[in-house]
# Entry
Amino acid sequence: MTGTISPFPQKPKTKEKTLTLVSSFAGCQHQRAIVDAALSELECADCHEKLDPIRFLTMMATQSTHWDYEAMQIKKLRADLAARKRCRCLRCGEWTEIKTVRQSEAESIRKRKHT
# Structure
């Protein structure tokens, strides 16, 4: 045995960090399923792959929660918009009352703008 010790190779230290993104959007997203109640199985209606029922239900529940939250946000924004009675004029800076316009009036205004 010799008295020399070889150093362990080390990677140079850098402040850069490597981030590897794994795309979960590759291939079929299994948005639609065919339910076989007799066999207690799920099959993707698009790619016909057998699906894990619990995972599919979890995905559907997550999407449902997301859409419920978005619908609630839209409802809140519509209520806020309906509550607004006045706005500041971009030209003069004065506060002016917001006029409600019927659909037919709005269409005639749009036509005048485009001509």
About this structure: Residues 34 and 43 are 5 Å apart (CA to CA).
